[in-house]
Design brief:
The chain folds into two domains: about 140 residues, 2-Layer Sandwich (Nucleotidyltransferase, domain 5); about 160 residues, Nucleotidyltransferase, domain 5, CATH 3.30.420.40. The protein is an alpha/beta fold. The strands form three sheets. Strands 3-2-1-4-8 form a five-stranded mixed β-sheet. Strands 11-10-9-12-13 form a five-stranded mixed β-sheet, with helices on both faces.
Length: about 325
């Protein structure tokens, strides 16, 4: 009998599901709206319906589900309790792990979405050859997952590696987390656009107006537009500055960059590399690799399956 795991990526807009075999191959996937603004009950119905669709597909192939792993943006405890999710407030205080265990009967686990991306890259992507590294996802915000000595590091309560909320400018831009000057206010898609708006010629700003986004800024930079290039350079410097402290502290082997802005990796890398070389111990910087993630949008789904496999193992031990 073929064994499958279910990986789920929960976002403020979409719920994404993947049925994955033991080799890390996605054999079936689906997507629906999260509809979280309509409340927790409707969200849970859609979540269970998506899982049931994958279960039926697995059974049609004569297989069975061995576990479920779910990624959620926010502060997620080791027990699966969602302490805070800025874009999904209806889930605050909800223990999603317990809910799925009870409703599906499958061993289930829930974690921060960036942590699952790190697990995905570790199991099936760019992290396979390293034991200690950080995965940074640059999109709407900045997420991160930390692998130390081959294990996901989640800290005492499960909240570790919130690298996007390192303070880099004490009196800087306000952040939705309640702090000011967090790194993700300077390294994210929104930050890139804000910087570009300060640097681009007026005629380009008028041309693009509200349609100016990170992809447009990247396109302009690739065409040689100096303001757009400088926007990427500033973002690279901010990221390099913050990373240098982390790398000096932990002596990591690699930094793996994913998320939507990773499509512009080559525009970000030069300034990031220069900043790291200037601020890191030479002995550490010499061996540090900066890589682009290999799994793209599937990293979190595959990481969910890696988490599910761990949950299944833990449950077997406890029984």
């Amino acid at each position: 009998m073929e064994h499958f795991f279910i990986g789920i990526d929960i976002g403020g807009t979409n719920l994404r599901f993947a049925l994955v075999n033991a080799s890390g191959v996605i054999v079936y996937r689906n997507r629906t709206i999260s509809g979280i603004k309509g409340g927790r009950a409707g969200f849970c119905e859609r979540l269970l319906a998506g899982i049931n669709e994958l279960r039926k597909f697995a059974e049609s192939r004569g297989g069975c589900i061995k576990g479920i792993g779910v990624g959620v943006p926010g502060l997620i405890g080791k027990d699966g309790l969602i302490h805070s999710s800025v874009n999904m407030r209806a889930l605050d205080g909800f223990n999603l792990t317990n809910f799925l265990n009870e409703e599906t009967g499958y061993p289930s686990a829930c974690g921060n979405d960036a942590n699952l991306i790190a697990l995905g890259e570790q199991a099936f992507g760019a992290g396979r050859r390293f034991s200690s590294y950080i995965v940074i996802t640059i999109g709407t915000g900045l997420g991160s997952g930390l692998i130390l000595d081959g294990r996901l590091w989640t800290g005492a309560g499960g909240f570790a590696a919130e690298f996007g909320h390192v303070t880099v400018e004490p009196e800087g831009h306000p952040c939705p987390c309640g702090n000011r000057g967090c790194l993700e206010q300077y390294v994210s898609a929104g930050a890139l656009v804000r910087t570009a708006q300060e640097l681009l010629p007026l005629e380009l700003l008028n041309k693009w107006g509200d349609r100016l986004d990170a992809a447009v800024v990247a396109s302009l930079a690739q065409q040689g537009e100096l303001g757009a290039l400088e926007a990427f350079q500033r973002m690279g410097r901010w990221l390099g500055n913050a990373l240098a402290s982390l790398v000096n502290t932990l002596d990591l082997e690699a930094v793996i960059i994913g998320g939507g802005v990773a499509a512009s990796f080559d525009l970000l890398l030069p300034a990031l590399s220069v900043e790291l070389r200037q601020r890191c111990f030479p002995q550490i910087a010499a061996d540090l690799l900066i890589l682009k993630g290999e799994l793209g949008d599937d990293a979190g789904l595959l990481g969910g399956c890696a988490l599910a496999a761990t949950a299944m193992t833990v449950m077997d031990i406890e029984q």
